[in-house]
Amino acid sequence: MAVPFYQLMLVTHRQQTALDDYLHFVETCAKAGITSVQLREKEASADFLFHFAVQLKALLSPLNIPLIINDHVDLALAVDAAGVHLGNSDTCPQKARKQLGHHRIIGLSLESMTDCLTANQTDVDYVAASAVFPTVNKSNIRRHWGLDGLSKLARQSRHPLIGIGGIDESNLNAVMKAGAHGAAMIGAIHNAPDPVAAIQTLRALQH
């Protein structure tokens, strides 16, 4: 049985790392067991994002790892990415679906139960509880779902649900038991002394 693309999503966090070095890091992670990559670089220029996305697509395609673009539907189309991940302030999913067609992935962040109920009536491929736990990697978080909130979302959502925010080796198993189908991560992989070992441990905790 194929592993779902949303099972273990690496969210990019290049910061000041040289691009070639960071691409090598992503390649290492891809070969170690991540199941998709989300390009999320909020402070980057449009030109740099395009260059970065082209490089990621070229790197990931031979490995059959989907590239998801955060926010930018136009960029996803320009580089032939697998799809987009949208927040509440981004392009509405209905408009994105018209632009992207039905063969591309659309993910949607959920910040309230109302968001979940609305998403149930929307043509998206997965939804993300944002954020499950406190995290330093995202500002303007409206709520922390916690395990109880995540469990409620899982019962209500008709789409596959992933967790985002503060998830690591210490709590991933509990996140999955609460009903998540996968997780998107920054710190648990980027900050690991041995990213390969970390990814292998994280994947094991999802079973």
TrEMBL record:
<comment type="pathway">
    <text>Cofactor biosynthesis; thiamine diphosphate biosynthesis; thiamine phosphate from 4-amino-2-methyl-5-diphosphomethylpyrimidine and 4-methyl-5-(2-phosphoethyl)-thiazole: step 1/1.</text>
</comment>
<keyword id="KW-0479">Metal-binding</keyword>
<keyword id="KW-0784">Thiamine biosynthesis</keyword>
<dbReference type="GO" id="GO:0009229">
    <property type="term" value="P:thiamine diphosphate biosynthetic process"/>
</dbReference>
<feature type="binding site">
    <location>
        <begin position="38"/>
        <end position="42"/>
    </location>
    <ligand>
        <name>4-amino-2-methyl-5-(diphosphooxymethyl)pyrimidine</name>
    </ligand>
</feature>
<feature type="binding site">
    <location>
        <position position="90"/>
    </location>
    <ligand>
        <name>Mg(2+)</name>
    </ligand>
</feature>
<keyword id="KW-0460">Magnesium</keyword>
<feature type="binding site">
    <location>
        <position position="166"/>
    </location>
    <ligand>
        <name>2-[(2R,5Z)-2-carboxy-4-methylthiazol-5(2H)-ylidene]ethyl phosphate</name>
    </ligand>
</feature>
<feature type="domain" description="Thiamine phosphate synthase/TenI">
    <location>
        <begin position="8"/>
        <end position="189"/>
    </location>
</feature>
<feature type="binding site">
    <location>
        <position position="71"/>
    </location>
    <ligand>
        <name>Mg(2+)</name>
    </ligand>
</feature>
<dbReference type="GO" id="GO:0004789">
    <property type="term" value="F:thiamine-phosphate diphosphorylase activity"/>
</dbReference>
<comment type="function">
    <text>Condenses 4-methyl-5-(beta-hydroxyethyl)thiazole monophosphate (THZ-P) and 2-methyl-4-amino-5-hydroxymethyl pyrimidine pyrophosphate (HMP-PP) to form thiamine monophosphate (TMP).</text>
</comment>
<dbReference type="InterPro" id="IPR034291">
    <property type="entry name" value="TMP_synthase"/>
</dbReference>
<protein>
    <recommendedName>
        <fullName>Thiamine-phosphate synthase</fullName>
        <ecNumber>2.5.1.3</ecNumber>
    </recommendedName>
</protein>
<dbReference type="GO" id="GO:0016301">
    <property type="term" value="F:kinase activity"/>
</dbReference>
<dbReference type="InterPro" id="IPR013785">
    <property type="entry name" value="Aldolase_TIM"/>
</dbReference>
<dbReference type="GO" id="GO:0005737">
    <property type="term" value="C:cytoplasm"/>
</dbReference>
<feature type="binding site">
    <location>
        <position position="138"/>
    </location>
    <ligand>
        <name>4-amino-2-methyl-5-(diphosphooxymethyl)pyrimidine</name>
    </ligand>
</feature>
<feature type="binding site">
    <location>
        <position position="70"/>
    </location>
    <ligand>
        <name>4-amino-2-methyl-5-(diphosphooxymethyl)pyrimidine</name>
    </ligand>
</feature>
<comment type="similarity">
    <text>Belongs to the thiamine-phosphate synthase family.</text>
</comment>
<feature type="binding site">
    <location>
        <position position="109"/>
    </location>
    <ligand>
        <name>4-amino-2-methyl-5-(diphosphooxymethyl)pyrimidine</name>
    </ligand>
</feature>
<dbReference type="Pfam" id="PF02581">
    <property type="entry name" value="TMP-TENI"/>
</dbReference>
<dbReference type="GO" id="GO:0009228">
    <property type="term" value="P:thiamine biosynthetic process"/>
</dbReference>
<dbReference type="InterPro" id="IPR022998">
    <property type="entry name" value="ThiamineP_synth_TenI"/>
</dbReference>
<keyword id="KW-0418">Kinase</keyword>
<dbReference type="InterPro" id="IPR036206">
    <property type="entry name" value="ThiamineP_synth_sf"/>
</dbReference>
<keyword id="KW-0808">Transferase</keyword>
<dbReference type="GO" id="GO:0000287">
    <property type="term" value="F:magnesium ion binding"/>
</dbReference>
